[in-house]
Structures are given as C-alpha cells and as structure tokens.
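Please fill in the sequence for the structure shown.

STRUCTURE ENCODING:
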C-alpha cells in the first residue's frame, strides 16, 4: 500500500529549473537594468488530475555588474516566492484555455533604499496568466495587482505562434516562436515607472506603456532539457513616458537571452 501511494505521489509531482543569462532586464514597461543579469526559476508542480494543479514557485535574479550600487547600496538583486493554482479548460477540440493564479511575494533583502527610499523590503502581488492554446496563434493575458507596499495594476496582452524548423534533417524538435506583447498600466503603475507627473506637470492616467517584439529559438537537448535563445525588442510607446525616460533607463532597447529549461 505504501509503495502504491508513493508511486502515485511521485507521478503527480514535477520539478522545473530554468536558469538564464540576459543582456538586460525588462520589468513592467521599463528597462530596469541595462547590463547583464543572471536569473533562476524553480517550480514545483503537483497535478490534481481533472481538478488542475497546485504548486510552489521561486524566481531570483542578480545583476552581473555593480553599476546600481550607488542607488541600492548593493548589486541589483531580487528574490520572489509564490504559491499557485492552475487549470486547463478544454473549450473545444484543439482549443484549451489555460489559467494560472498566483500570490507572489517580492523580497529585496540587501537594498539600502529599495524603490526610491521605501522603508519596506518586500511587495505582495496577485498574479493571473491566461493563454488560449489552439492550432493557430495563441493569445495571452497577464494581470498583476500589487497590494502591499506599492499599489498598481499592470496588464500585458500578447500573441504568439510556434513553428517547427528542420535544418538538414538533424534538428528534430527545433522550434521558432515569434511573439508580440503590449503593456498597459493604471495611473499608479505609470507614475512608478515614468515619474511623479507627466512632462507638463499633469497627472498620469491609465493607458498603454510599452511594446515588445520577440523571437525564441528552442532546441531539445534530451527528454528533460531544452536550450533556448530569445531576442526581444523593447520600446516605450507613450509620448509622455518617453519624454520622462532618461539615463540610466531607455526608451528603446534590444535584449538577448540564453537559457535552459529543465523539467523532471
């Protein structure tokens, strides 16, 4: 009986580890770091069969340079934790709406003055991500609502399509995925990202913030590991936000990422 229960539990568990290196870091409509960073994603999923799944999530990144020390009294670093529930609703044959909701806790343990002098070193955020998977192009929606320390509402809408690629018959499993995203924010989110007021001194209102064009090349290394490379072109599209964005931040930027996705 014990062996049966252990086997059932192990078959319901999966673990994902995803390390990558990026030439810059994009965060909610802004280039938060324009120098290389290294990040690690850890994720434990527990399948509930037809009831969906639950799990634990952790993401950490660290700047590979020291240029932000004057602002934060350390290298730019962040360690985030979350618990989640996900579910896939099969609307029709080949059409599945995948949804994941998460509570995420952001920690900035070594910052002297995180986010412009705040006394707290953490933020709490509710997170929703949905994707309508289908044989054509997959629309995506991401919603982030911060309720502790900061108060903002952020949306991302996007579209992606994966294409198989074969070069000389030896690249079985190689894919290229173009995608496009557009970021929206409420007045608080735009104020946090682009300054307290618009260039004319007026208040911010909700609206479009930035866009991203993206291409990802993925190639399986073995049954558990996939290598990938991603090229992103970022741009702030709101005129007032562009005018308020100055060094060390950027109105437009190109970001390159290489990484591995390991699933067991």
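FILLED IN BY: designer on duty
SEQUENCE:
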């Amino acid at each position: 009986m014990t062996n049966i229960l252990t086997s059932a539990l192990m078959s319901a568990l999966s673990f994902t580890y995803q390390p990558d290196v990026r030439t810059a870091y994009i965060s909610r409509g802004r280039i938060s770091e324009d120098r290389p960073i290294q990040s690690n994603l850890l994720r434990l999923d527990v399948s509930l069969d037809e009831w969906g799944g639950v799990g634990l999530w952790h993401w950490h990144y660290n700047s590979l340079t020291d240029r932000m020390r004057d602002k934060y009294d350390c290298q730019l670093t962040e360690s985030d934790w979350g618990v989640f529930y996900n579910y896939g609703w099969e609307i029709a044959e080949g059409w599945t709406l995948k949804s994941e909701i998460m509570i995420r806790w952001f920690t900035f343990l070594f910052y002297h003055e995180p986010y412009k002098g705040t006394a707290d070193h953490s933020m709490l955020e509710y997170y929703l991500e949905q994707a309508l998977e289908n044989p054509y192009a997959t629309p995506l929606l991401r919603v982030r609502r911060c309720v502790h320390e900061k108060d903002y509402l952020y949306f991302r809408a996007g579209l992606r399509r994966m294409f198989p690629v074969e070069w000389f018959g030896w690249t079985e499993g190689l894919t290229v995925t173009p995608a496009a995203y557009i970021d929206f924010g409420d007045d608080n989110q735009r104020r946090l990202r682009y300054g307290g007021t618009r260039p004319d001194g007026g208040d911010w209102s909700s609206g479009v913030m930035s866009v991203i064009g993206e291409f990802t090349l993925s190639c399986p290394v073995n049954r558990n590991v996939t290598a990938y490379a991603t090229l992103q072109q970022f741009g702030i599209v709101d005129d007032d936000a562009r005018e308020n964005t100055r060094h060390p931040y950027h109105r437009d930027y190109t970001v390159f990422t290489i990484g591995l996705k390991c699933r067991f």
